[in-house]
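Practice problem: predict the structure.
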Amino acid sequence: MGPGLLCFAVVQEFQPFFRLWQKNGGQLTAFEWPGPRNFQGKGWFEPGLVVIVTGMGARNAEEVGRQALLRWKPSWLVTSGFAGGLNGDWPRGRLIVSADLTFSWQSHFLNAGFCPGRLTCEPRIAASREDKAAIAARVKADAVEMESAVLHRLAIEQGIPSLTARVISDDWQEDLPLDFGALLNDRQRIDPTRLALALARQPNKIPSLAAFGRRTHVSAQVLATALVRALTDLRKSALSDRNGRE
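Answer:
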């Protein structure tokens, strides 16, 4: 049986999880991807668990996620990170979970504080309350993100149970301090030059950008705490199931 596979889009989502996982006895070690590094993928491994950072957006999730599934042949897949709120009753910091029917361990995430909800994946960052309102008017969903649908599809193709566990980092009426979508390069990464020019044109955005960074860090900490609890219980349950079959 292969290891579990946990996916994040960006390192800001991953780092608090990594620190807390290691503090609780984890032994994740960085590994290099084989072959040409023509994508953003980064990975960490310990017996029973692989964690990857795919990069933002569907294209990166497709490229890195497909390679990870083929390489590791995981027993389950969890995709995690930030999401923008679409439900007026769900505040920043709310934990949301959505699993396919073959994922047998959702109860561990519910026990850790995640709430069942509906997610939608979009090709662009929802940067304003108007963007979020337009999405909410078009689809029935509680939150929006950019990668999980691709990873779920890849998992289904390989017969791998999958689950999404996200935290709302900006609620339904919150504007992002900048239109981050306009700052991305063709690999869906923030272009430092574009960011510098945007801040040079709008220096008044610097305090709000710093405040946004602090809020998302708090959200990432909330997510990390719940993920560590859920995954610790999941691994114990999976090990017990395997021992029972043997």
